[in-house]
Amino acid sequence: MKPLPIFSVLLLLFMVGCAGLQPELAKPTVSISGFKVLPSGGIVPRFEITMRVVNTGRTPLDIDGVVYTVELGGNRILTGVAKDLPVIAAYSEGNVSVSGTPDLFGSLGFFQKMVNDRSDAIDYKVDVAIDVGTFYPTIRTTKRGNFSLSEAMPTQR
Question: For the whole model, what pTM was predicted?
Answer without folding.
Answer: 0.66
